[in-house]
Amino acid sequence: MSETELQDEEREVLSSIYDGDNCFKQISSNTFQYKFGESDAMKSFLLEIQWGEKYPNEAPKVNMDTFYNKHITKPLKDKIVSVVEEEALQFLGMSMTYSLFEFIKEKFEELMLEQPEEIIETVEKSPSPELEQTTSQKVPKKEHLTKAQKRRQWNRIDSKGEKPRGWNWVDIVKHLSQTGPKEPTPTS
Fold this sequence. Notes:
The chain has 188 residues and is of the alpha+beta class. It is built from six helices and four strands, in the order H-E-E-E-E-H-H-H-H-H. It has a four-stranded antiparallel beta sheet, covered by helices on one side. A hairpin with an 8-residue loop joins strand 2 (31-36) and strand 3 (45-50). Helix 2 runs antiparallel to helix 3 (97-112).
């Protein structure tokens, strides 16, 4: 079999295996992504595998530089890429994308031990103090009410901050006077 036939066969197999799996995504005919961990959690990442022209006779390109992985530390990204590339060398000459995704599923907990629970942001000094002043001055504006608006709000609620009992009740007498009396039905 030629490389393109092997790729077509593996593409078909991947789509049937991961059919309905929201973590798997086929970006193009030769690029696949799989999300490991809970969605949008600190301990989750997106692994992208891209096949080359000679795949499966050559190892695929492994990419961790996606926007979803912005919270993953650089050393962990490098470790994941190296572990996947090392594992891919065992499977040269045969379909390996599914095997690589499953390998990372097994190693996920072990790999995530190096990922901190919270993002530790490094604050870099900006070159000019003017930039710091403009960013720090952007404070959300509070809604300013006039005295009359504040008084009306206080009159509508009681001391507990709740509306008085029956504030949305319908005045039955007023309602019935608007609908009119019930007409008697003729009896035979």
